[in-house]
């Protein structure tokens, strides 16, 4: 049962990548719009004073904010596509139809039961308008719930076919037929149940907010500690996109979730300073600074004969962490060789977020330095306090370096470069070149990967997330961890029951594609 629950949680976490990874693009475009409409920046760059440029900036920032007020449908479609095993396009289309059925069914039921509040009294009523339809305010949770329901029914019946006159009602059409009464029933049930759920969510959010720095520390620490399981996304996603991360009214619209709030505040020139809820997305501090100190400590404590080799490996890993916020190459370099360092890393990451909150710093830096520059510099120092973010980051860099170096030498930990024989591999430079993200691995290498997983007959399911190849195997004892690391440049292998995760970083899409082709699995 434990393994089954873990598998389902990891599948859900993987499915969440579809909507979660696309939403930061909206933030980048909003940031670009802010640059084009920034009055102070226009004084330095005269071309920004052009009305056309200003209008373009307003269109970019203003139009993308609408995404933040429709997260329900975005998560519904995105999650159903992410969780669908086959016919993903049809699953996405079905989820759109189901979403429309749900909100209209709930509106009709609330009207019949006289539970709808007046349209001019929505604030604080627990109701809102979604796509112009007044319903209970379920926010992003509506999309998540419907996305799960649609994907479950879709995976179960999307290939069910009938003969004769009923043939037209088979396949994905059958899925929609089944979902119509299910969706209407869900709309009725949630009309009664959701107000109680919302009270629980609000009370939980209040508890977390009242926990203050302790809550932030636990959040930041857990977000890192769960990296090995791949479930860390389940920690931060509710805070970024639901009321757990805060509720604010901006430009006449009520927004929930840390990221939704600060995206809207970025686009609103009347906001003098970003709100405190931005702290839930300050996870980038250790990515840009702390782990770089860890890399330097590992380099300085490496054996003299290995320093040149380990430097060539650590530098690209550090650059990737700084610029793109991809930390697993560094984290997996010491996670298994020296677990105590990973525990210290999680502790220091949470502590760094607490320091930012104590000092009232409102800078945004969730995914590396590129995002940090785009989000913060155009907004100005008063609105974000970004120079202090860098200062705290430099302090964290020093703390990581001193602690990691002391612990490594004190306990003689076998971090990369300290092995007398053999080597602990990280990614090589070519692994991090952008072109390698989509490059197909050779058939020969794919055969080695399959061999390392116990052979084709041992593989039940192949999937992947942002950086990991995720598999279900029949017998995990057949997995050859050493082979996968040494021959396929995997940076880590995690085994939980019959669930196996092999960390390949940014090139995982190419790995997944080549393995699928080698096994004869058709692309979904």
Structure overview:
There is one protein chain. The chain starts with a helix and ends in a 5-residue tail after the last helix. The protein folds into three domains: about 1-205, no CATH class; about 210-425, no CATH class; about 435-520, Gyrase A, domain 2 (2-Layer Sandwich), CATH 3.30.1360.60. A four-stranded antiparallel β-sheet has the order 5-6-8-7, with helices on both faces. It has helices at about 1-15, 15-35, 40-45, 50-70, 70-85, 90-110, 140-155, 170-210, 215-225, 235-240, 260-265, 285-300, 305-325, 330-335, 340-360, 370-375, 380-385, 385-410, 445-450, 480-490, 510-520, and strands at about 125-130, 135, 245-250, 255, 460-465, 470-475, 490-495, 500-505. By secondary structure, the protein is of the alpha+beta class. It contains 21 helices and eight strands.
Write a compact overview of the structure shown:
The protein has helices at 2-15, 17-36, 39-44, 51-68, 71-83, 88-112, 139-157, 172-211, 213-225, 233-241, 258-267, 285-300, 307-324, 328-335, 339-358, 369-376, 381-384, 386-411, 443-452, 481-488, 508-519; strands at residues 127-130, 133-136, 247-250, 253-256, 459-464, 468-473, 492-496, 499-503. By secondary structure, it is an alpha+beta fold. The strands form three sheets. The protein has a four-stranded antiparallel beta sheet, with helices on both faces.
């Amino acid at each position: 049962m434990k393994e089954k629950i873990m598998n389902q949680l990891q599948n859900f976490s993987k499915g969440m990548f579809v909507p979660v990874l696309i939403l930061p693009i909206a933030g980048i475009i909003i940031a670009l719009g802010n640059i084009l409409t920034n009055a102070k920046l226009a004084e330095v760059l005269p071309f920004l004073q052009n009305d056309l440029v200003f209008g373009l900036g307003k269109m970019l920032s203003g139009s993308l904010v609408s995404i933040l007020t429709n997260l329900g449908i975005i998560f519904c479609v995105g999650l159903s596509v992410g969780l669908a095993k086959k016919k993903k396009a049809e699953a996405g289309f079905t989820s759109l139809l189901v979403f429309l059925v749900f909100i209209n069914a709930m509106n009709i039921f609330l009207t019949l039961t006289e539970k709808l509040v007046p349209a001019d009294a929505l604030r604080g009523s627990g109701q809102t308008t979604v796509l112009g339809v007044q319903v209970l305010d379920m926010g992003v949770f509506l999309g998540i719930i419907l996305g799960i329901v649609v994907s479950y029914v879709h995976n179960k019946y999307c290939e069910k076919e009938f003969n004769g006159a009923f043939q037209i009602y088979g396949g994905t059409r059958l899925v929609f037929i089944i979902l119509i009464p299910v969706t209407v029933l869900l709309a009725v049930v949630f009309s009664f149940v959701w107000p109680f759920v919302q009270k629980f969510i609000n009370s939980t959010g209040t508890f977390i907010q009242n926990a203050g720095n302790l809550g932030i520390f636990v959040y930041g620490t857990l977000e890192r500690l769960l990296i090995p399981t791949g479930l860390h996304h389940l920690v931060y996603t509710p805070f970024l996109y639901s009321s757990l991360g805060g509720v604010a009214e901006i430009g006449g619209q009520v927004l929930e979730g840390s990221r939704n709030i600060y995206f809207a505040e970025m686009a609103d020139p009347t906001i003098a300073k970003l709100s405190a809820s931005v702290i839930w997305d300050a996870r980038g501090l250790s990515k840009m600074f702390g782990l770089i100190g860890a890399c330097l400590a590992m380099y300085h404590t490496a054996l003299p004969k290995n320093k040149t080799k380990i430097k060539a490996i650590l530098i690209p890993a550090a650059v990737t962490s700084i610029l793109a916020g991809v930390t697993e190459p560094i984290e997996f370099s010491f996670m298994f060789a020296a677990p105590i360092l990973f525990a210290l890393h999680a502790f220091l990451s949470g502590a760094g977020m607490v320091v930012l909150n104590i000092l009232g710093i409102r800078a945004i830096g969730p995914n590396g330095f590129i995002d940090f520059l785009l989000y913060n510099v155009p907004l100005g120092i008063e609105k974000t306090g970004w120079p202090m973010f860098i200062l705290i980051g430099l302090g964290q860099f020093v703390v990581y370096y001193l602690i990691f170096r002391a612990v490594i030498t004190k306990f003689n930990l076998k971090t990369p470069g300290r092995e007398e024989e053999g080597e602990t591999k990280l990614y090589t430079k070519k692994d991090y070149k952008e072109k390698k993200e989509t490059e197909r691995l050779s058939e020969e290498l794919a055969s080695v990967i399959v061999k390392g997983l116990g052979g084709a007959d041992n593989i039940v399911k192949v999937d992947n997330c942002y950086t990991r190849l995720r598999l279900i195997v029949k017998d995990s004892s057949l997995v050859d961890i050493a082979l996968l690391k040494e021959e396929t440049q995997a940076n880590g292998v995690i085994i939980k029951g019959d669930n196996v995760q092999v960390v390949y970083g940014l090139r995982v899409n190419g790995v997944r594609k080549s393995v699928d082709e080698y096994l004869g699995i058709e692309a979904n």
